[in-house]
Design goal:
Distance between the termini: 140 Å
Number of strands: 58
InterPro entries: Ig-like_ZP (IPR058876), ZP-N (IPR055356), ZP_dom (IPR001507)
Number of domains: 5
Oligomer: single chain
Radius of gyration: 54 Å
Protein name: Zona pellucida protein AX 4
Structural class: mainly beta
Pfam families: Ig-like, ZP-N
């Protein structure tokens, strides 16, 4: 080798080196190569001391029965490793043509991440001694710099050689026969033997090729070598080797199986003796076929003469299985019509699988078939054929398995994606159009669990909450349930490479729907309602009485309402519209508020949320829609110091409290009774009364109580003992300390309206009370009243006394 070449010996007795080179799976190819290169430089010094080592996981050197094998990890060599054969005459680059000519085969096994070199024991540069010695240089390139690794091994096969052995390699045919030529004493290059490849004796030897389709002229061995043929004498065996497809070979069919044959006869005339050697190489060229889960390969039973059936043993990757163990391994071997048929199950151990994207996810399998076929002729001499065949299945469909494992009771979609090949990786998941990289971030509510299986596939389980916003939810009238739907698009990548495959799947779940229910809290000032929205709550309307709850309605009634996509919050102050009161006493009362739930489509009331709360207040006033005023008043603030009233009453002294507790009194009376005064304004009407307490000397006015109603809500102001209003009135308690006498008026006073203030009608307290007031016209009240000729309020009163 030239001086500028750097020869580095890979060594490996120490497991430490194997760890350094192979343990870190995250190390990039470039970094692995760099580390390997650096360590190898150091170890090259050890090799000079005669050390013989082997790097586990990076390099394999194996002696087989009829060939030597080198396997190197592509992670250490790069994608395009090169080999050189070395002998005493120099180094020789093993190109594709040179390999077929000289007995080498190189395979890039990308599926395994290996480059494999097989060398025949009779290859061109094998050195023959006590065994077969091989010397090679492995050449790798890193950042434009070549590194040379010397790979040396001597093999001594234990299997005895048969009289004739034929090797059908993937790129050449080789036949060797036992030499029984006469030998003379003399130099090694005597013309009585097949001497070394370049000796002068090769000129006296000639070869002629037998071809049934044409007659070929003889040529000497030098010419034959130039044509790509090799003839040699190695260990007393005559060797003949040829690449496939040479002009002198021919194709034929034997029992329907394609066969390539080359028939060479080597001869030499020496004085009165003619030496002739017949060399025939015949190899099945069947490429294999796929049928019902098996890769099928055929070879003729009688490629060479045989007294009976041939003995067959075969396996994968250089490992033979005896015929008796074939069934246990799942292989098939059958004989029919003088043909041997081998069946390899697609999932056989030792086969290689590769995924491929073509109209869906496909796969193909590669099998490195190794077969030994032995026949015995009539002279009881064996012929052994060794086959190396790479068999590839056609593209096979490889569908993924998807299963909806959702349990609605768990509230979660669960989708199983199985039968994912080991060389296919899930990179992202698209949910209803939104993409999420794999692995999922901890910040999202979805989970993705991967499980690896013993059959070298793996699976994923995706879980998504049913009520997550990413799930499409819609009401199914047909099913009378809420339909939850999730569209999934898996993006998978075939490794190595970045070819994507998209797998789509949709899942649905039906969930029974129920009307919503509010969470309710009683507070001192009213009742608070809270509803946590569900995705289907848009199906309902919420009603306050006969009115639909809206922000405008809430504002009109004095509620506080907050409504967003998550929650509805409604605070209903005490004494606002919608309350019902009962058990009213001086110690408090029960207030009930009801929210109805109505089907938005049918307008039918489905359910309601009714809440009754106990309210304790010192004072309150209620103005009902049916024309009653109920008031609790504490008169302690207006009582003369040290005095305790003997009696309480309203303007009409016959109207007394329903309950008394010291200075606290409870009155409940119709608005149009007990001497109430009616004040009619432009927009509303006010009913007013006064609470009096009697002392030892006189009656004292303590409080004024009043209820005001908007005119627009009144159906009628009075009717015979009947009052109707759409809204509750607004009550007021007004302290008053001026002493006065209670007088039952003998007449009615009507106060005429003035242009400079809002029109009003004042009725003094009286008993019996007014039964009916008829209003003909009121200024600016179209539809209920009409203007008079002057545009002022015109009122006529008609009062009835009991």
């Amino acid at each position: 080798m030239s001086g500028e070449k750097q020869v580095v010996h890979l060594v490996s007795r120490s497991s430490l080196l194997a760890v350094m080179l192979a343990s870190d799976t995250n190390t990039s190819t470039a970094m692995a190569f760099k580390l390997m290169f650096s360590v190898a430089l150091l170890l090259s010094l050890w090799s000079t001391a005669g050390c013989d080592f082997f790097v586990e996981g990076v390099l394999q050197l194996e002696c087989h029965d009829r060939y030597f094998m080198i396997a190197v990890d592509l992670a250490a060599t790069g994608e395009v490793p090169r080999f050189e054969a070395v002998d005493g005459t120099g180094t020789y680059a093993i190109t594709e043509d040179y390999a077929a000519k000289c007995g080498y085969s190189i395979s890039i096994l990308s599926l395994l991440g290996l480059v494999e070199l097989r060398a025949s024991y009779f290859s061109c540069h094998t050195e023959k001694g006590a065994g077969f010695s091989f010397r090679f240089n492995l050449i790798t390139t890193y950042e434009g710099v070549d590194a040379y690794y010397a790979l040396n091994k001597t093999c001594s096969p234990h299997l005895l050689w048969s009289p004739r052995e034929v090797t059908c390699e993937v790129n050449y045919m080789e036949v060797s026969v036992r030499s029984e030529l006469p030998c003379q004493s003399g130099s090694s290059d005597d013309s009585s033997t097949l001497g070394p490849l370049y000796s002068s004796s090769t000129e006296v030897w000639q070869v002629t090729f037998q071809n049934p389709y044409q007659q070929l002229p003889p040529m000497n061995l030098s010419q034959a070598r130039q044509e790509g043929y090799i003839f040699n004498l190695v260990h007393d065996r005559i060797v003949f080797r040829t690449p496939y497809g040479q002009p002198e070979s021919y194709r034929t069919e034997v029992t329907g199986v394609p066969v390539e044959v080359v028939h060479a006869t080597v001869f030499s005339r020496q004085s009165w003796v003619v030496v002739m050697v017949d060399l025939i190489a015949a190899c099945s060229m069947d490429k294999g076929s796929y049928d019902s889960g098996y890769m099928i390969w055929d070879t003729p039973e009688a490629l060479y003469p045989s007294l009976g059936t041939t003995q067959i043993s075969f396996g994968l990757n250089g490992n033979l299985v005896e015929e008796a163990a074939v069934v246990q391994k799942g292989f098939i071997m059958e004989r029919y019509n003088s043909t041997v048929q081998i069946g390899i199950p697609y999932d056989a151990e030792g086969g290689y699988r590769k995924s491929f994207v073509s109209d869906g996810l496909s796969e193909f399998y590669i099998f490195n078939l190794y077969l030994k076929q032995t026949s015995v002729d009539e002279r009881h001499e064996e012929t052994v054929l060794w086959f190396h065949r790479t068999l590839v299945t056609p593209l096979l469909s490889s569908p993924l398995f998807t299963e909806d494992q959702t349990d609605v009771n768990d509230g979660t979609f669960s989708i199983y994606l199985g039968k994912v090949p080991r060389d296919v990786e899930l990179t992202s998941v698209q949910l209803t159009g939104q993409e999420f990289a794999v692995p999922f971030s901890d910040s999202i509510a979805y989970t993705l669990t991967e499980v690896r299986h013993s059959n070298k596939s793996h699976s994923y389980t995706l879980k998504v909450p049913l009520h997550d916003p990413i799930v499409v939810q819609e009401f199914s009238k047909e099913k009378a349930a809420m339909l939850h739907k999730l569209d999934i698009n898996y993006t998978l990548i075939v490794k190595p490479g970045d070819e994507p495959y998209y797998h789509t799947f949709s899942v649905t779940a039906l969930m029974a729907v129920s009307p919503p229910s509010f969470d309710v809290v009683c507070k001192e000032s009213g009742i608070d309602f809270k509803l946590a929205y569900r995705s289907f709550d848009y199906l309902w309307d919420f009603m306050i009485g006969s009115d639909r709850l809206t922000p405008a309605l809430a504002a009109n009634y004095g509620y506080t309402m907050s409504n967003d996509s998550q929650n509805l919050l409604l605070s209903v102050p005490l004494f606002t519209h919608g309350y019902k009161y009962k058990d009213i006493g001086l110690k408090g009362f029960l207030g009930t508020f009801t929210i109805l739930v109505r089907d938005r489509e049918t307008a039918g009331i489905l359910t309601s949320t009714i809440k009754t709360c106990l309210f304790n207040t010192t004072e309150f006033i209620m103005c009902s829609t049916n024309g009653w005023m109920t008031v609790v008043v504490d008169l302690s603030a207006v009582l003369p110091s040290g005095e305790m009233p003997t009696r309480f009453h309203l303007l009409n002294s016959l109207c007394v409290p329903k309950a008394v507790d010291g200075t606290r009194v409870l009155f409940s009376f119709p608005l149009h009774s007990c001497g109430s005064t009616v004040k009619l304004a432009k927009e509303n009407v006010t009913y007013q009364n006064k609470i009096y307490f009697d002392t030892s000397e006189n009656a004292v006015e303590g409080m004024t109580v009043q209820c005001t109603y908007p005119l627009a809500s009144l159906h009628r102001l009075f009717s015979s003992h009947k009052f109707e209003s759409d809204k509750e009135g607004v009550g007021s308690i007004i302290p008053f300390v001026e002493t006065t006498k209670v007088v039952v008026p003998a007449k009615i006073t009507t106060v005429a309206p003035q242009r400079t203030r809002s029109p009003s009608l004042h009725l003094p307290p009286s008993y019996p009370t007014a039964r009916y007031i008829k209003v003909y016209r009121v200024h600016n009240r179209p539809g209920q009243f009409s203007k008079g000729p002057t545009g002022n309020l015109q009122v006529k009163t008609l009062l009835h006394y009991a």
